[in-house]
Automatic annotation (TrEMBL):
<dbReference type="InterPro" id="IPR042099">
    <property type="entry name" value="ANL_N_sf"/>
</dbReference>
<dbReference type="GO" id="GO:0004467">
    <property type="term" value="F:long-chain fatty acid-CoA ligase activity"/>
</dbReference>
<keyword id="KW-0443">Lipid metabolism</keyword>
<dbReference type="InterPro" id="IPR045851">
    <property type="entry name" value="AMP-bd_C_sf"/>
</dbReference>
<dbReference type="GO" id="GO:0016020">
    <property type="term" value="C:membrane"/>
</dbReference>
<protein>
    <recommendedName>
        <fullName>Acyl-CoA synthetase</fullName>
    </recommendedName>
</protein>
<comment type="similarity">
    <text>Belongs to the ATP-dependent AMP-binding enzyme family.</text>
</comment>
<keyword id="KW-0436">Ligase</keyword>
<dbReference type="InterPro" id="IPR020845">
    <property type="entry name" value="AMP-binding_CS"/>
</dbReference>
<keyword id="KW-0276">Fatty acid metabolism</keyword>
<feature type="domain" description="AMP-dependent synthetase/ligase">
    <location>
        <begin position="49"/>
        <end position="460"/>
    </location>
</feature>
<dbReference type="Pfam" id="PF23562">
    <property type="entry name" value="AMP-binding_C_3"/>
</dbReference>
<dbReference type="Pfam" id="PF00501">
    <property type="entry name" value="AMP-binding"/>
</dbReference>
<dbReference type="InterPro" id="IPR000873">
    <property type="entry name" value="AMP-dep_synth/lig_dom"/>
</dbReference>
């Protein structure tokens, strides 16, 4: 029986151990489900798979005409070995840093594992990074080599080479350089790779992943092989239905989020570890992604809320075009009621869906819910969601539509998830319990503190000779604010550094309002303003697909965007959305005025990080006049 096929039941859930102080829950912890790894490294995974299940499909590659071809464990191990030997032939030595700058592709994962097998440390770079941002990461990490996806990326780095004295190699996927590495290593004995793998242990440095740099220069997070093992092994055991097939349908996923982000990287490692068939989707453009999902047909997805919001909003827009918007809205309401009823039943606080609700859900399944599932490939039953809050309403909808959401919370510094929704115990609107082996503490000022095997070693500091610790007494201060409920579920309320303080002395966390409004089909980005101001306001941008559909339905395609942002009907629609968002907060925290911008926040303009987080100071600087106008009552 393979690692990914099991008839055994999932391990019993252990509720968090709770500690209270003055009547408030201050700490929650869950014991590990997986035995800690004491020897070996991530580099061993492909070779262990090849030994244990050589014929099992562990990856799939998309070829011509959109056809997917499986890659067996034995074939992948052979490729990893060949490329690792090529890296050795090129003169890279254990501990050297190898940067990878590419979209989510097969070559990315292949080079990642080959680099580990050669004893190297990989350094992801977002493929959308500017030449300056890339140069900074290469300089700071001391990378001796970089592999990029395209010739254009290689050309952009050309003028920077004289400022990168450590950089000795530049390889390009498009030019077949990964295959050339495999050819170069033919004379290197296999035993050299075996020896380098033998030098690695759980405490060895695996990767430097740079933070998105919302308030300054990115910082390199030093993650060890043991950090990844603690993360993925406990996640695999906890999320038993996701990673371990319990039917004839083998578990599989199409990864389309960036491998340069710790979230995507963790799932790639976890899939190889659990021998879950993994495919790569390099494009998140709607048409490309839907085509990849239809061709691959995964059983679960790793997603950020934007993707699930997009699928929902596209489904409603399609229904509206067909004159069935009211029917879709009824179906959505029934799905939410169904999801909430199941949640209550699982917690023992309700009887579950009644006969009428079950009948209504069955009626709308072929009309609405099946189409939602079909947009995700048709076989998806689970989605692991993170990056920002999904929201209770959307989580309940997907649960009612037949897709169970596992929402999680974590940071680069915690190798992705530190908390996650426990199976069969969802609490919609929260980010779940501590991942097994993790402790969560709420500090006196509300800051979330984390402790566990997945917490990183520290930040990379070449000036200090390597890694500088960032953990105080074993606890990592996240900079996020949150609270634990009586059962140990964590809710994130915002970032400490983002808290706005009005002239009236009211502390306002902008995240709940921003997240709610960003889920609206017409809203692209939202930034709440109000620091040292008399009241709260907001800058709103328009979502291109959503506003295009709205204009078609309202027959306003002729309106240029500068007029559209002042259109009374559009402003009335957005005002209703703002009014709904304001129900989440008190009067003093509510949005009193907003303005719609004629341009979007973009990474190119410096408004967004590569992970799409808002750079608030940059936005405030570029839209200072619009902000001032919100407080000008003349």
């Amino acid at each position: 029986m393979s690692r990914r096929e099991t008839t055994s039941p999932p391990p019993p859930l252990t509720p968090p151990e709770i500690r209270q102080l003055n009547g408030a829950v201050r700490e929650a912890s869950v014991p590990p489900l997986a035995t800690p790894v004491t020897r070996g490294s991530l580099a061993d995974i492909p070779f262990d798979n090849a030994q244990q299940a050589p014929a099992e499909a562990v990856l799939s590659r998309k070829g011509q005409y959109g056809r997917w071809t499986d890659v067996t464990a034995a074939a992948f191990a052979d490729e990893v070995l060949a490329v690792a030997k090529g890296l050795i032939a090129e003169g890279l030595v254990p501990g050297d840093r190898l940067a990878i700058m590419a979209r989510t592709t097969y070559e990315w994962t292949l080079l990642d594992f080959a680099a580990w097998a050669a004893g190297l440390v990989t350094v992801p770079v977002y493929p959308t990074s500017s030449a300056f941002q890339t140069r900074w990461i290469l300089q700071d990490s001391g990378a001796v080599a970089i592999a990029v996806e395209s010739a254009a990326q290689a050309a952009a780095l050309g003028p920077e080479r004289d400022r990168l004295p450590d950089l000795q190699h530049l390889w390009t996927f498009e030019k077949g350089h990964v295959q050339r590495l495999a050819e170069l290593g033919r004379e290197v004995p296999d035993e050299e790779v075996t020896a380098r793998r033998g030098m690695l242990g759980p405490d060895s440095l695996a990767t430097l992943i740079y933070t998105s740099g919302t308030t300054g220069r990115p910082k390199g997070c030093a993650l060890t092989h043991g950090n990844f093992f603690a993360e993925v092994d406990n996640a695999i055991e906890l999320l038993h239905p996701v990673f371990k097939s319990v039917s004839k349908e083998p578990a599989s996923t199409l990864l389309f989020l960036p491998l340069s982000h710790v979230f995507g990287r963790m799932v790639a490692v976890g899939c190889l570890r659990a021998r879950v068939r993994l495919g790569h989707g390099p494009s998140i453009q709607t048409e490309d992604l839907l085509a990849d999902l239809a061709g691959f047909r995964p059983t679960f997805l790793l997603a950020i809320p934007y993707v699930l919001e997009k699928v929902f909003n596209t489904g409603r827009a399609t229904a509206e075009k067909m004159g069935r918007a009211a029917s879709f809205d009824r179906a959505a309401a029934i799905a939410r009621r169904y999801g909430e009823a199941v949640e209550a039943q699982q917690h023992g606080t309700g009887p579950g869906p009644g006969p009428g609700l079950r009948a209504a859900r069955a009626l709308y399944d072929p009309l609405v819910y099946r189409r939602i599932r079909a947009a995700l490939g048709g076989k998806v039953r689970y989605a692991i969601c993170g990056g920002s809050p999904l929201g209770r309403r959307l989580a309940a909808f997907y649960a009612g539509a037949g897709i169970q959401i596992f929402e999680g919370y974590g940071l680069t510094e915690t190798t992705a998830a530190a908390t996650v929704t426990p199976p069969l115990k969802p609490r919609l609107g929260t980010v779940g319990w501590p991942l097994p082996g993790t402790k969560v503490r709420i500090a006196g000022d509300g800051e979330v503190m984390l402790r566990g095997g997945q917490v990183f070693r520290g930040y990379w500091d070449p000036g200090a000779g390597g890694v500088t610790p960032a953990v105080e007494d074993g606890w990592f201060p996240t900079g996020d604010l949150g609270h634990l409920d009586a059962d140990g579920y964590l809710t994130i309320t915002g970032r400490k550094k983002d808290i706005l303080i009005t002239t009236g002395g009211k502390n306002v966390a902008p995240a709940p309002l921003e997240d709610w409004l960003r889920a609206h089909p017409l809203v692209g980005q939202c930034m709440v303003v109000g620091d040292n101001r008399p009241y709260i306001t907001a800058l709103i941008t328009l979502e291109p697909d959503g506003i295009a559909h709205w204009c078609r339905m309202k027959r306003k395609e002729h309106l240029p965007v500068v007029q559209l942002v002042k259109d009374p009907e559009l402003l009335e629609t957005l005002q209703r959305a703002v009014d709904e968002a304001n129900k989440l907060v008190s009067r003093a925290e509510s949005i009193r005025r907003f303005t719609v911008l004629a341009t979007d926040f973009t990474e190119e303009a410096g408004h967004l990080t590569p992970s799409l987080k808002i750079r608030r100071e940059a936005v405030l600087g570029d839209f200072a006049e619009e902000v001032e106008a919100l407080y000008d009552r003349r």
